[in-house]
Amino acid sequence: MSVTSAVERWLDEAAELTRPAKVLWCDGSPAEYDRLADEMLRDGTLLALNPRTYPGCYLHRSHPSDVARTEQLTFICTWAREDAGPTNNWMPPADGKVRAGAFLRSSMRGRTMYVIPYLMGPAGSPMSRTGVMVTDSAYVVASMHLMTRVGPVAFRHMRSDDDFVAGLHSLGDLSPERRLILHFPEEQLIWSVGSGYGGNALLGKKCHALRIASWRARQEGWLAEHMLIIGVEDPAGRVTYLAAAMPSASGKTNLSMVVSTLPGWRAWTLGDDIAWMWIDAQGQLRAINPERGFFGVAPNTSPRTNRNATEMVHANTIFTNVALTPSGEPWWEGLTPEPPAGLVDWQGQPWRPGGGPAAHPNSRFTVPVAQCPSVAPNWEDPQGVPISGLIFGSRRSAVIPLVFEAFDWRHGVFLGSAMSTETTAAITGTVGLVRRDPMAMLPFCGYNMADYFAHWLTTGPRIATPPRIFRVNWFRRDADGRFLWPGYGENMRVLRWMVERIRGSADAVETPIGWVPTPAALDTSGLDLGPAQLAAALRCDRGEWLAALRDLDAFYAGFGPRLPASIAETLAETRRRLRDSARR
Ligand code: OXD
Ligand code: MN
């Protein structure tokens, strides 16, 4: 491997601080993965699953207090506080290094420091970026193998001596009191200590591909987004590519590999979590998936909700915090209608019905994208795929219709900026609280979100044909708490409407919030869904909307004068349209 002097300097610094017993370079080879797995099987970090039904699969049980992203311990460390903005935790870079430095000092004593050169993005893509992370966790190394492209390929993509994101990770003592996840975007640097959980510890994912990359993307004129990428094929074989932002644990993985219930329509999977998008020389928006694997939420994944996922995790998968059956198979709530007898829970204890979930609600599977039965043949195309539509989706039991389309790019950016959602188990804290989560990027935008909205606003007009922007909500409920829309495979009906809107052939009615499908425009054939239920799923209730928009002023006011005028103007226009239509 050709290592630059900047990489060497960075590794010396990391070793000087953490004092490992030895330093081991990772080459990303299958032999290395197997060696690490063997070591972890010996020391109990991994358990082998049933080799007949789950060959090459392992179970990892994490520390019980280290099971999700810890947003309150995640910081953006910029020189100027305003550059991090009001939605990020902020610390001056020097303070961050002192505070985390205390936890990292000699934290690798007696341990191995693994050096992982990794590439985010397909080999040969002009959009792919290099990272070099160090860690003292073999589980992190093995997971990085599955989630990124590890090895010499990473160095081949460096454009200069110091063209890499540096990441320092140490498990520390895993205590939340001594845990910090720090980002220094001005230095292309990440420090993470005290957690082995994916989103905190696999530094290529949220830390690099979203927080650091979003900063870089704004400087360079591209977009790093919390979005899946999917190709929707129609019966004539034409594929339309869409990217969709949804908050954590809100159905992105399921949608990215949806099994269509509509004859002749099918979905091709390119990514389930992150999209890097840029405008090519012809003015076309294109996207790559910077990742190589899925780090998906296990609970409620079943042959009914996501057949592709249940198939792909039958080999070469690391499961974290799922339950274990007596025959050595993984199990989680929702996988089968009834739990099998004799389960061991995610903490390794015998499980009894009524004694809490057997699998942790944020238990996960880590698996290579290539194993997905619906993987797109071009998913690693270095030039990415052309994006014709963007989707903002959230989890709201009320107010937000199943689907509607923005009037134009500017309105779509407003809709994304105003998105609210109910919190899930993917983050430590209370589940089910409604919070603002603009573009599903609240926890992942590495800079001031007012500047992020401005960046979005200036990006659209640079695109020759800007993608249509859609808003979706699969989670709306009726007065009895029942979901109004069946979801999962039936979501293809909504994707179809979007594709037809993009082509100019699907009907919609103009409402104060955007274009809503006419009931006939949405193909509901064969669904047990009466007209009243469909109307309820699609309804724009003016009163509910006006009430829901009320706290947006306070949210936007938090950004002060940095908020683009267009956002506040679009809010005012929306209110005006809602009031006018109520008077009509
Ligand atoms: C994830 C998340 O793991 O968003 O993708 O938390
Ligand atoms: Mn995510």
Q: What ligands are attached or bound here? A: oxalic acid, manganese (II) ion
Tell me the count of domains: 2
What is the CATH first-level class name of the largest domain? Answer: Alpha Beta
* DSSP summary, beta strand count: 30
Structural class: alpha/beta
Range of helix content = 25-40%
- The parts where pLDDT drops under 50 for at least 5 residues are none
List the total number of helices.
17
Morphology call: globular
Whole-angstrom Rg: 23 Å
Which second-level CATH architecture of the largest domain applies? Alpha-Beta Complex
CATH fold-level name of the largest domain: Phosphoenolpyruvate Carboxykinase, domain 3
Mean pLDDT, to the nearest integer, reads 96
Span between termini? 70 Å
Largest sheet: 9 strands, mixed
